[in-house]
Predict the 3D structure of the following.
Amino acid sequence: MRKKLVAGNWKMHKNLTESQALITEIRGIVRDEFRQNDAEIVVCPTALALASSARLVEGSEIRIGAQNVNENKEGAFTGEWSASMLKSAGVSHVIVGHSERRQYYNETSQACALKNKAAILEDLVVLYCVGETLEERESNQHFDIIKNQIEQGLEGITGEEMSQVVIAYEPVWAIGTGKTASAEQAQEVHAFIRSLIDSKYGQAISQAVRILYGGSVKPENAKQIFGMEDIDGGLIGGASLKPRDFFEIIKAAQ
Ligand code: PGA
C-alpha cells in the first residue's frame, strides 16, 4: 500500500508575516483534525519563509518543501541555494521541474536530473514534476513528452534512490486554469508513468513509487481524482493557500 501524499505549492505568494500566519493556521487544523491514516502533508512556501515555517511546524505532521534547488554544492551562483542549505533550514522535500520553472526559467529535464541527484544526496525527497502542454496533448504527443521527461529527469538515479523520489504529473493546461484532467485522463498517464518506472527499475520499485496529480485540484474534485488506482495524492497550487480547502483535500486523499 502506498501512503498518500498531499503537497501544497504556494508559488510566489505570501510575504514572511503572511506565510507565518498561514502555516500557523494550517498547523492548527492539522493538530486538531489529523488522524493516523491521513495523507503525508508537505507545504512548500517561498524560499524566504522556509526556515521560519520549518520551526513553526516542528513536532507536527507537516513537512516543509522548497520550490527549487541548485544542483551545485556551493559557489558563485548568485540567487541560488543548495540542497544542504535547504536541509540546514529544516526542509525535507523539494519540488523539481515544475512547469513554471521549465517555461519561465528554461529548466530542462537534463537540468532536473542534476537537481534531483543533488537533493537526493542530501537526503531530501524530490517531487519531480512532469506534464504536457495543451498543444502537445492536442497533437497527441503527450506520452512521448512524458516519457522523455521521466527518462531524462531520472537519469543517474539508482533504484535505491527511488525511495526518495515522488513523481508529480501536472498537465500544464490544467494548472491554475480551473480545468482539471478527468480522473480517467489522469489515471491513464499515471499508469503510463508507472509502466516507465517498471521498465527502468522493476516491479517492486514501480509499485512503491508515489505519483501525484496536480492541476486545479479542489475539495470538490479531489476525492474522485485520488480514488484512481495509480494516483497517490496531489500537488496543490491555488487551493493550498486556503487552509480549510487544503485540509479537505488532505482528507480526500486517505
Ligand atoms: P493549481 O497549481 O492547483 O493552482 O492548478 C498546481 C501546481 O502548479 O502545482
Q: What stands out?
A: The chain has one domain: 5-252.
